[in-house]
Design brief:
- This protein has three helices and four strands.
- With 89 residues, the chain is of the alpha+beta class.
- It has one domain (23-85).
- The protein has a two-stranded antiparallel sheet with strand order 1-2.
- The longest helix has 13 residues, at 44-56.
- The chain is elongated, with a radius of gyration of 21 Å.
- It binds zinc ion.
- Zinc ion is lined by residues 61, 63-64, 66, 68, 80-81, 83-84.
- Zinc ion binds at residues 61, 63-64, 66, 68, 80-81, 83-84.
Length: 89
């Protein structure tokens, strides 16, 4: 082996090189039955994760996390499963 060959140690990932930017949540709320997450300091990958979480919030029961859907309960729109909404899917 030659001395110019890189050692395995050189390829070890250093935590500080793989960390994503710190996301700062500026507002987190429920609106029309789904999650709204407003933040600053995020990169495009983190933006995609936030968007995915917002989309999933329309499909997961807000009480138990089971598969759910949006439905109107009088004047309030909620995301609930059949067990907690009382309505069959
Ligand atoms: Zn539920």
């Amino acid at each position: 082996m030659t001395s110019s060959m890189p050692s395995a140690r050189r390829y070890r990932m250093r935590p500080q090189t793989v960390l994503a930017p710190q996301v700062v949540a500026t507002q987190v709320k429920e609106k029309f039955g789904t999650l709204r997450f407003y933040a600053s300091g995020h990169n495009s990958a983190q933006d995609g994760m936030i968007e995915l979480a917002e989309m999933l919030s329309a499909r997961l029961c807000e009480l138990c996390g089971n598969r759910g859907r949006l439905y109107r309960d009088e004047w309030i729109i909620r995301t609930r499963c059949p067990n907690t909404s009382g309505f069959p899917f």
